[in-house]
Amino acid sequence: MKRSSFTKVCQAIHDLQKPIVADLHLHSTYSDGELTPAELVQLALLKGVEVISITDHDSIEGIRALQIAGQITGQMNAGVQIVAGVEISCYLEGESYHLLGYFFDPENDELQKTLMRLRKARWERGQAIIEALKSMKIELVLPTHWSEERISLGRPHLAKILLEQKVVRSIHEAFSRFFFRDPINRIPKAQITVEEAIGLLKQAKGLSSLAHPSKRMIESQLPRLSQMGLDAVEVWYPATTARGKESLLQQANDLGLALTGGSDLHQREKALETIGSCGLSRRYLDQLGIRSGSLYH
Ligand SMILES: [Zn+2]
Ligand SMILES: [Zn+2]
Question: What is the tens place of the pLDDT at every residue in 182-200?
Answer without folding.
Answer: 888 888 776 899 999 999 9
